[in-house]
Write a structure and sequence with these properties.
The protein is α+β, with helices and mostly antiparallel strands. The protein is built from 14 helices and 21 strands.
């Protein structure tokens, strides 16, 4: 409210000025910019550096003297300015390196609002706005670059190993660290940044629209998703659908492979080092056991998964979760609870592009796991045979699963495979239903989709609480505690105001777009 703005400005100024904990490292600051008075503080880098220098001895326990010198010199050059004041009807808070960086436009003709930068917001001028934001491309580039990556750590480890003693010849590790850095750089090259525009407004809840921003390169925005209609049912609680970029997947696979290889090589280098200690002796024995017996198996499993399996499916995949699964017949659970209770059904579905490779991947995994269990049996002295999967056929699709007690068609971790579709699910029925819907086809969508249905979640929670309350005596020989029931009911009541959360990322006319709708009832 207009009458509250002066008080709000004073409160912000008070918070900015309240820097007594920093003592002499802060000096008060008052400046006038374009006829507006700003009050605040300057946090002095030189003072901070001098204070840190008093504890130099402790710093040199972790860092060499030259690095400490560089750190203190860098901090000494960095001041932080915090200012606040009022501009017209608004309270302004500024944080930066210098008060000179706080620049105010002299009028509309010199303001960013007179340019095309904020053109994205024109369609929302009549909305009940909650937020308007804009970031230049240069700012987005700087922001993404400053986040760094794993290579910053691996480069440091590589440089540290070059002068380390006790691990012997570390040139192989240094080469692996370099490979990790190179593959991460190749992955980051697929990313791109654009100027970011964002607006949030109230309308059937909260809506957030963004234009541009950062694109990591993971999503193939040019391809049309064929599985978007699988999330249309009101029974679906969670739905996600995306077509991943093939080049990104390949480079990501190479990157993670390099990380695993480097971590393994580092572990083995430590195992070979002449280090003492009871824990290290045990570690060395385990490392030797893994190296001699299980390393080939792990390599074979990774190859089967990354090569054959990874190249046998299409780029699109959808995840579907509902609460329509029937409860398994677990002994000791009341019959009514088993008959009426529901459990989540979680499925992932993707198109099959090469069934021969898909079959080959399973043959390799099965052969490898059979050998691995034989080795584990040898080490432990207990026979652990490889379980043989069972299968069932329907409509040209084969469902494979391992036999376990209490399984039903609606509760059986399984894989269903046909010439066109692959589904991994906790429910055979759910997988087959999704494959049938995928085969029938429906409306296509583009980009990344996410849908969370709070109504279905509330219905499930209500029904479950009611069943638990009705069967509490049979389950625990005591009725449901009133305090526990109230706590559960209060938690469910939170959902009563919520409808659904939808997220849609795509490209429109070449511009990255994202729409988020937190819909209320």
């Amino acid at each position: 409210k207009e009458e509250d703005r002066p008080a709000a400005a004073q409160q912000v100024a008070a918070m900015v000025a309240n820097t007594s904990l920093l003592g002499e490292m802060v000096e008060p600051l008052s400046v006038e910019i374009s006829g507006n008075r700003f009050e605040g503080s300057k946090i002095l880098g030189a003072k901070i550096s001098a204070t840190l220098a008093e504890g130099r001895e402790a710093m040199e326990e972790e860092l060499d003297a030259a690095t400490v010198d560089q750190l203190l010199a860098a901090i000494a050059k960095k001041d932080i300015v915090v200012l606040s004041g009022t501009v017209g009807d608004h309270v302004l808070l500024f944080i930066g390196a210098s008060a000179d960086d706080l620049k105010l436009a002299a009028g509309l003709s010199q303001s960013i609002v007179s340019t095309e930068s904020l053109a994205f917001s024109d369609d929302y001028a009549g909305k009940d706005l909650a937020m308007l934001g804009y970031g230049q491309k240069a700012a987005m580039d700087t922001l993404i670059q400053s986040t760094g990556g794993l290579s910053e750590m691996t480069n440091g480890l590589r440089d540290g190993l070059a002068g380390a003693e006790g691990l012997g010849d570390t040139r192989d590790l240094e080469a692996l660290f370099q490979i990790v850095a190179e593959r991460e750089a190749a992955l980051r090259k697929l990313a791109g940044n654009e100027a970011l525009g964002m607006v949030a407004y109230f309308g059937q809840g909260l809506k957030i629209e963004s234009y541009g921003g950062s694109d990591g390169g993971m999503v193939d925005y040019k391809s049309s998703n064929k599985l978007g209609h699988l999330g249309d049912s009101e029974d679906v609680v969670l739905f996600a659908d995306v077509t991943s970029d093939a080049v990104y997947d390949e480079k990501a696979r190479d990157y993670f492979e390099a990380i695993f290889e480097t971590a393994y090589a580092l572990g083995m280098k430590v195992a070979d080092a002449p280090l003492a200690g009871e824990d290290l002796v045990q570690y060395k024995e385990m490392a030797k056991l893994f190296e001699t017996k299980f390393r080939p198996d792990m390599a074979a499993l990774w190859d089967a998964f990354a090569s054959d399996f990874g190249n046998s499916l299409g780029q699109e995949s959808a995840w579907v979760v509902d609460f329509k699964g029937g409860a398994p017949a677990v002994p000791g659970v009341p019959a009514k609870l088993l008959a009426e209770g529901k459990i989540p059904r979680i499925s992932m579905i993707a198109p099959v592009t090469d069934r021969a490779k898909l079959s080959a991947s399973w043959d390799k995994m099965n052969t490898t796991l059979t050998g691995t269990l034989a080795k584990i049996s040898e080490v432990t002295g207990e026979e652990i045979p490889m379980q043989k999967p069972m299968s069932s056929e329907r409509g040209g699709n084969t469902t494979w699963f391992f036999p376990m007690p209490f399984l039903t068609d609606d509760f059986v971790p399984s894989v269903t495979v046909g010439d066109k579709w692959f589904a991994a699910s906790t429910s055979k029925n759910h997988a087959l239903d999704l494959i049938a819907k995928a085969e029938a086809g429906g409306k296509s969508r583009d980009g990344f989709w996410l849908n969370l249905n709070f109504k279905a979640l509330e219905t499930f929670a209500d029904e479950t609480l009611k069943l638990v309350e009705e069967n509490a005596v049979a389950m625990t020989d005591a009725p449901l505690d009133a305090k526990d029931r109230k706590l559960a009911a209060d938690a469910i009541a939170i959902l009563a105001d919520l409808d659904r959360l939808t997220v849609h990322s795509r490209r429109e006319s070449g511009v990255l777009r994202s729409s988020v709708h937190f819909k209320t009832r």
